[in-house]
Amino acid sequence: MTKVALGQSKMVARPIPGFFHLLIYVGFIIINIEILEIIIDGVFGTHRIFAPLIPTSLYNTLIASFELLAFGVLLACVIFLIRRNILKLKRFWNKEMTAWPRTDANIILITEIVLMTLFLTMNCTDGILQSREIEHYIQAGTFPISSIFTGLFTDLSDSNLIFIERFCWWFHITLIFAFINYIPYSKHFHIFLAFPNVYYSNLNPKGQFTNMESVTNEVKAMLDPLFTPPLANSEQPIRFGAKEVTDLSWKQLMDSYSCTECGRCTDVCPANMTGKLLSPRKIMMDTRDRLVEVGKNIDKNGEFIDDGKSLGSYISNEELWACTSCNACVEACPVNIDPLSIITDMRRSLVMEESAAPPELNTMFTNIENNGAPWQFSQSDRLNWKDE
User: Fold this and answer.
1) Do residues 193 and 333 touch, judged by C-beta distance below 8 A?
2) What is the residue range of 154's domain?
3) Contact 78, 113 (CB under 8 A)
4) I need a surface site. Which of 22, 172, 263, 283 has the fewest CB within 10 A?
């Protein structure tokens, strides 16, 4: 977690977007210290309450660093907007990136641009008011970025400067609280879930699949007539694989909410590169959409009422069988999301509950059942290959 989530090791695998994301990431964390001061000032009617409590040089250094980071965040968001909407990078315009996902991304970037602009404008007018020794505006802070733009405001009267400074303060803090409420409904929810999602990520070697206990017990019973399978803990019939989001693990569901729809997984997917329907990002988005739908169903009815749909209503068989199980998507994800585990569990359901495997696989399954090998040789001949 320290390496991947805190250290952003997978983000910087692509240096340019990784660098600008790092600016936003560090800015988001550190500028919150200044937001804490802004909130306290609002509650108690003070102005820069931390200034008298810490050494002047340290406070000035902090305010200067906040400004530099704010400018970095603003610059990074503008560049990301350009990449999405003007350069139109392919991975941001795949078929699953419909109107809402693109709008959601733009809302987040524009909101952050507005927040940083308000912050710098507030500091700029604050610095001018301090220089004029206006009551309440104590001498505190160094403003390396906002001071560049003082020429835009120096001709204004004290009352107009105070109005602009107060307007920026109120707009800034109101927008922050509004944005906090918006986050759980947007892809930006990953800022809260990235750390726990990485912490609980699967650390087994890539390609190592989980055994299904129900199947293991059946095999043991077949090989040992004296083996007694353990009693099921639930009255519900045992499910093989996943047909619905309720069949997935809590970690798989958290994966879907941790997805920021960056598209790196789809960008490296060999099946997607060759024009097949599979997009690992779409798998995660579809899982989240279905989970939201199931949640609303439960909220409305008190319990889940069958709506005639399932996760398979969102994710087609063609998508599932296009996957080569190469784990490229898992390796590329900046927060260790595992689309392959969902694909595998849904395949298991198709094979073991619906017998809906492709004909090629059904032929192989039949050969294994009858001949003990994937090839159509008799039991006695199945090891002849080693003598060649």
Assistant:
1) no
2) 8-185
3) yes
4) 22
